[in-house]
Amino acid sequence: MSRSKVPTGSSPEAVISIVGPGMRIIGDCETSGTIRVEGVVEGSIRAGKAVVIGKEGTVQGDITTQDAVISGTVMGTLIVESRLELQSSCKIQGEVQATRLQLEEGAVLNGTVNMGGKVHAQAAASPPPKHQPVADEPSTS
User: Fold this and answer.
1) Closest Cα to residue 97, out of 79, 82, 116, 81?
2) Distance between CA atoms of 70 and 37, rounded to whole angstroms?
3) pLDDT tens across 103-137, in order?
4) Distance between CA 27 and CA 14 in Å, rounded?
5) Are 63 and 74 in contact (CB under 8 A)?
6) Which residue from 51, 90, 49 is spatially nearest to 69, judged by alpha carbons?
7) pTM, whole model, 2 decimals?
8) Residues 34, 47: contact at Cβ < 8 Å?
9) Buried b / exposed e across 15-29, counting CB within 10 Å, b at 16+?
10) How many C-beta neighbours within 10 Å does residue 96 have?
C-alpha cells in the first residue's frame, strides 16, 4: 500500500474570507489572510495580507492591512503598510496612510493622505486624548 500525503489545512496567508453581495456584518473583522468585501461591513477590518473592496462593497470603519485594492466605498481610516490601489470607482472619506499609493482617474478621495516611510498601525488603534486642561482651567486632581 502506498501512502499519499493529504493536506491537513491551508496556510493562513492563503485563506480568503468573503463578505458577499447582500451580506451585512456589524462588528469587527480580523484575519491573517485576505478579506474581500462585496457587501457591507460596519466595523473595523484587520487583515494580515490584503483587503479588497469590490465596486458594490462598503466599509464604515477603519481598515488596517499590508495591501489593499479599493473599488467601492470606505468611510474611515485606511492604514496600508505596503501598497494601496484606489480604483476609478472608489469613494474614500477619511484618513489614508500608505507607503505606496496608486490613484486611478475618477477615484474620489476626501480626507488626509500620509505617504512614505514606515506606516504606524498604532495611529488607528489608539484614540486621541479626550480633553487636555488649558493653563487657566483649575486642575481636578
Assistant:
1) 79
2) 10
3) 999 999 999 999 876 665 544 444 444 444 445 55
4) 23
5) yes
6) 51
7) 0.75
8) yes
9) eeeebeeeeeeeeeb
10) 23
